[in-house]
Each structure stands twice: as C-alpha cells, then as structure tokens.
Predict the structure of Protein-L-isoaspartate O-methyltransferase.
Amino acid sequence: MKKFLKYFFIFLFIFCPKMKKENSEEYYKILRERMVKEQIERRGIKDQRVLKAMREVKRHLFVPEAYRDESYNDYPLPIGEGQTISQPFIVALMTSLLEPKESDKVLEIGTGSGYQAAVLSLLVKEVYTIEIIEKLAKDAEKRLKELGYHNVKVKWGDGFEGWEEYAPFDKIIITCALPYIPKPLKEQLKEGGKICAPIERDGFQVLSVFTKKNNELIEKVCDYVRFVPMRGRIEIEEKEDK
Ligand code: SAH
C-alpha cells in the first residue's frame, strides 16, 4: 500500500503539470472561439481572414500571467509600464479597416505586447512595428520570436519618425492616440495606401482611416475609441504648434 501511494504521488507529480497545461490550452481555445463569435462577429466584422487570425493568435500569451484568465474578455488589459493591450474587438476592427492583403508591407506604431502585430502577421507579408518603451519593445520582440511570428520586425524607438529603412508601406496602423498624422508617416505611405489611427479631436478620440490620394490624406471617421496617448516627439511638436 505504501509503495502504491509512493508511485501514485510520483505519477501525479510528473504528469499533473502537463495535463493542466494541455487542458488550459483547450480551455483558452474555447474562450477564443467564444470571443470571436460574441464580441467580434456579432458586432459586424465579416472579413473571414481577420476572424481566422483572431481565432488563431493565443492572446493569453501576450498578457501578464496574472491576467491570463481575463485575456479573452471584452476589455483592454494592463501590460505593464502603464500601457494596455487593446480590447479584442478594437484589434479586429482596426485590422479589418486596413483591408490587409497577402502582399502588404505594414508598419505599426505602438507594439505594446506584440498582439496586434501577431494578428496582422498572419494576414500580410511583413510587419514592422515600433515601440517607444524599451522594456515593452524587447519583451515583445522575444515573445514574437518564440511564438514563431518570423515576418515581424520590432524596433525600439519613436514611431513619429516611421521606419525609413523599410519604407514605403502599403498600410500603417497606429495604436496610440495622436492629434494628427506626423509628416514622416504620411511620406512613408505608398500612394493609395491606408493609415488607421485613433485621432484626438475636441477632447475625444475618433478612429479614422486615411487613404493617400494625390499625395494627400483623405480621412474617413469610423468610431469613438479610447487609446493611450502617443509619447515622444509629438508632444514637443504639439507644444511648438500652440
Ligand atoms: N498594439 C499594442 C497595444 C498598444 S498600447 C498591443 O497589441 O498590445 C500603445 C503603445 O504605444 C504603448 O505600448 C506605448 O508605449 C506605445 N507608444 C506611445 N508613444 C509611442 C511612440 N511615439 N512610438 C512608438 N510607440 C509609442
């Protein structure tokens, strides 16, 4: 009996963590499926490629461990350094507004956790993403690499300047709120390309899609949103404007 108990506990010790891990992956898959159906499809996102990508990317691996079980809920979550990962619906909405094509080269400003970049990477050829907070940039770079998102390149820097080395881009997505589109970003966008960004206006933020036509950005306002503000050079430029 004693021997049996001994082997029983050894068995539990070896296999339980593994079983728990496999079970939780199944559990998160169910949560992901529910998230897509109830928060995204139900609110009118129809692009099947976007829905597929949202079903695939393991959002729970992009949030701090303490928030894993909440990661598929209908709200943003803290990712450290006072920043947040956007609500799943907003990620899906911004992704579908970009109308991603397999041949696209996309620039993202505001890497954060790397989640938005991971979703995009399944839909386009290459993703270039810039993050101003060093720790977030380094963590996201490591995470994306470990999870196998090899068509994403991360840079620590100020997104205001864009990423001249890899320009021009077919699409640009900005995931921090800003008062206007900085000139370098407009210049690094291809003619006919799109920028999706939360724009600060009259004390609110609107989610806008800009299309570059004859070197001008034509704006279409889509929705009201709430994002963390852009930091860095834009704050100085803004002050200089006033
Ligand atoms: N897309 C992210 C969430 C973005 S939160 C995700 O999927 O997790 C907004 C991010 O923009 C924050 O991490 C913030 O540090 C970053 N940010 C703010 N100003 C920036 C700037 N000038 N250049 C690059 N990143 C910036």
Observations:
- The chain has a mean pLDDT of 93.
- The pocket of S-adenosyl-L-homocysteine is lined by residues 83-86, 109-110, 112-113, 115-116, 130-133, 136, 158-160, 175-176, 228, 230-232 (CB under 6 Å).
- The chain has one domain: 2-241.
